[in-house]
Predict the structure of Gfo/Idh/MocA family oxidoreductase.
Amino acid sequence: MRTFNWAILGLGNIAHKFAESLTLLPNARLHAVASRSVAKAEEFAAKFGAPHAVGSYEELLAVPNLDVVYIATPHSEHHAHTLLCLRGGLPVLCEKAFALNAAQVHEMRSVAQTEGVFLMEAFWTRFFPAINKALELVAAGTIGEVKHLTADFGFVATYQPEARLFNPALAGGSLLDIGVYPLFISKLFLGEPQEIRAVATLAGTGVDKNCAMVLAYDSGATASLFSTLAAQTNNQCVLYGTKGQLHLTGRFHAANGITLHLTGQEPQAIPCEKQGYGYQYEAEHVQQCLEQGLTESPLLPLQFSEELMKQLDTIRQQIGLRYPGE
């Protein structure tokens, strides 16, 4: 079995979770880490046993025997760091939100195709066993025709204007950080919307603190979605069909099972595997793609990510949120 050498670019909280998740894959190892601080890189490398630690992102390109890079910097930096790696010939798994806007995603996609290098958005939700099982059940017509989907994601974040979540220079706000999850799940199950309407409450820095979205689809289905940095929500997703309901159990974006409520029947619990944080599922899929010589994922193609980014652009336009430099 081929072992894949991973690098992590950007060493914040999510990078630690990803590094820990890699240890659950027998054919993956953390080979290199990159930070703007060499001391931080060396500390991270020591913690996870990575043989290479560099103090700039550019230096990562010179590390030998790298197979793939996971980019875990703030949203505002994804575009530049992805292009850096792609042009250096390194396959990329880039954290969501994929970029600031659809124009950036389009360029990332074009460069990946021109260079013939693998690129995928790190939307870990797509690869959880519970999500795959839910997609199977819906496709099989288990709950009939889906007529409505609800999804929410919210937590209480301390208001710090310079912090990542509230800083417009770092593409802060609830929408790009967590609102993207309800939007993603609605697209995964219902496809491209015919219409999007959004309203928001803005924080003092001008980024969205609350964002509520309603969507309509050609199929006749609708969706109601919500994200907030001001309250703890249930982080649930429910699909309502003509024959019953499907609930993703646990936090829907990292679901650990499904509950089916079919009309006239007792609720049925379907547990699904969820090991650790769950980032290993997307990493394993990337390795399978690389093993097959693919330059994009058949389960999460770049077209999907670009369309999702266009939805985010539409919502930001409606709520009056622009980021510096746009």
